[in-house]
Amino acid sequence: MTLAAELVYTLWSNYEYEFYSEILQRNMRNTLILALGMELGLYNLFKTKSDWFLRLGYRLDPQPVTEPEMSLKGLTGGIGMRAGRVYLDAGAIYITGSYQGIKQKHWVLNGTMQLRLGRK
User: Fold this and answer.
1) Whole-number pLDDT of residue 25
2) What is the mean pLDDT of each run of 10 residues along the chain (120 residues)?
3) In sequence order, what are the residues at sequence separation of 6 or more whose Cβ sits closer than 8 angstroms to the Cβ of residue 119?
């Protein structure tokens, strides 16, 4: 089992935006993103020559704008398989957030396939 954590601090308060030579003042706050995750490896599952990986995670992502103040929360999951030279991965994140009574919910899905050529 692998456990991972990540903290990302961004200095949004120093952000400047120039639009047609006009510098716009943005009222941004600094943010600290927290992400936690785990991966469980299942090796030689079902007595085959394939390895499987199950992944779970959580992400807290405060948004830098001060009005409206909002944080996005994400629940992640994924599965991977490795058999010889073939690697398959699929993952998803479910993101939620709300501000001033407006709720935001959406899914992001992705997947990859890799075939390793050449000698092992």
Assistant:
1) 67
2) 95 78 76 96 78 95 84 94 90 89 88 81
3) none
- Asked if residue 56 lies in contact with residue 79, where contact means CB atoms within 8 angstroms, the answer is no
The pLDDT score that the predictor gives to residue 73 is 95
Q: Give the amino acid at 110.
A: N
Q: What pLDDT does 119 receive? A: 67
Place of tokens 């998803």: 92
46 is written with which tokens?
A: 């079902």
Q: Please write down the HEC assignment for all residues of the chain.
A: CEEEEEEEEECHHHCCEEECCEEECCCECCEEEEEEEEEEEECCHHHCCEEEEEEEEEEEEECCECCCCCEEEEEEEEEEEEECCEEEEEEEEEEEEEECCEEEEEEEEEEEEEECCCCC
For residue 62, the tally of other CB atoms under 10 A from its CB is 19
Surface-to-core class of residue 8, CB atoms within 10 Å of its CB (0-12 exposed, 13-18 middle, 19+ buried): exposed
Query: What is the pLDDT, as a whole number, of residue 23?
Result: 67
